[in-house]
Amino acid sequence: MKGLQSTKATTASISMDNFFGRIQKSIANASSSFILIGTFVLLFGAASMFYFLQPYFQEIHLERMNTTWGITLMITGFSLLIIKISFIIYILVLYLRYKTITPVSNEQLPLCTVIVPAYNEGELVYKTLHSLAESDYPQEKLQIISIDDGSQDDTWQWMKKAKDELGDRVAIYQQPENKGKRHALYRGFNLATGDVFITVDSDSIVKKDTLRIMASPFVVNKDCGAVAGNVRVLNRDKALIPRMLNVSFAFSFEFIRSAQSTLGSVLCTPGALSAYRKEAVFNCLEAWITQTFMGEVSKIGEDRAMTNMILKQGYKVLFQRKAYVYTNIPERYKNLYKMFIRWERSNIRENIAMSKFAFSNFRAGAKSGTRVLLLNQWLKMTMAYPAVLLMVFFIFTYPVLFFSATLVSILIFSSIQALFYAKKHSVSESLWAYPYSIFYAFTLFWITPYAIATAGRSGWLTRDLTKKELEEQKVVAVSSNPPHFMPELLEPIP
Predict the structure, then answer these.
(1) CA–CA gap between residue 286 and residue 188 (Å, rounded)
(2) Which of 95, 127, 307, 435 could make an SS bond with 39 (beta carbons 3.0 to 4.6 A apart)?
(3) Predicted model pTM
(4) pLDDT class for 73, splitting at 50, 70, 90?
(5) Which residues contact 191 (CB under 8 A, 6 or more apart)?
(6) Angle at 375 between CA 369 and CA 379, to 5 degrees
(7) Assign residue 364 a region: left if phi > 0, alpha if psi is -120 to 50, beta otherwise?
(8) How do beta strands 316-327 and 204-206 pair?
(9) Is there a contact between 492 and 173 (Cβ–Cβ < 8 Å)?
(10) Which CATH class is domain 23-52+98-494?
(11) Contact 368/274 with Cβ under 8 angstroms?
């Protein structure tokens, strides 16, 4: 009788959970529809305003053309527009020439070591290790290493749980203290026995064939020194920001990196999924781990730095479009802008580093395409402050012109991303390119100028848990694990 009552209670609880879950999903869908409708009302409203106020804008144009400053501004603006359009066309041509490398057979696959650095990831690292172990890569050729970088939460317990379930297929290690992702990877590289190293973030899930696809270019192309994977957003259905960024990520990787790969010059192999030739890594490993910027040890941008150092050796860096990894990205604005600041600081540092070799004879064959990519990076950096100053000027002098012109520009250029995503993936999801562009233009425009001004700072910004988050993690850890699952300094578990 008690068992029956318990079953009924459980069934009722599940039904209520499903009911509230449906309500929550309905609310989320309604909110999404409202945001998309509001976005297009705003954009087309701005386009209409821009059209009907043409006489007013023409008058402003004529006034500016009567001044030296106005003429200079118009010529500069027109020149930058031509450069931007020309670069997009250039990237499009390269994209159309891109070809992914077909996976090789089991017999041809090289010995491969997968390295997973982990810090404050909790259960996510457990899921990451399981997704790697379930890959279709031959087990006898695959070594999986995970290193806990002195986490504050229950990451180590989850790594031990994965180890208990996967046995000899996974080796886990623990740093005595938090030293940073670069040091965790450094330890992994030195422990690795494979001919190809693949690095995977501990909050990322790979598809079954991803490792095979990542390792294959090293077999068929002796000039390949590194490979970038295709990063997609894992938590895109959980919050608005990840949903918007999902389209941006797809465009950045599947369009931009495909074009860069055609030149053999992908500028950054992402931390979420990258592969490296063993020799290329060890040729620069000591320079990489001791890298400094403005006299400070570099603690950020380890992925872009490694890419630069491999390019400098004369190797090619490629992109494998079909090597998918799904990773979590920030769901809150504060965490998002911190991530972007870190990325931009790294770009600034590594653009400087790349400039020291990109215009030399750093490898055989054509190098002009690589230099064009770098010059485009520099153009973005050099225009950061002038763009912000002009924005402030126009907001205070011609606010109607500024907002209408900005929104019309967003409508035009966002359509490139939207059309690309619609063709490759989903028409309905592609519409999120528009609200994201508005979101970025008005809330994240300050990232690059701020990153330039603070390029010497090396803080990770998003790695540490708050006191409240740490307490919540501890409660979960104590309630879901036996008492002996405590973080401790251990040698690798065999």
Answers:
(1) 14
(2) 435
(3) 0.85
(4) confident
(5) 113, 145, 171, 173, 492
(6) 145
(7) beta
(8) antiparallel
(9) yes
(10) alpha beta
(11) no
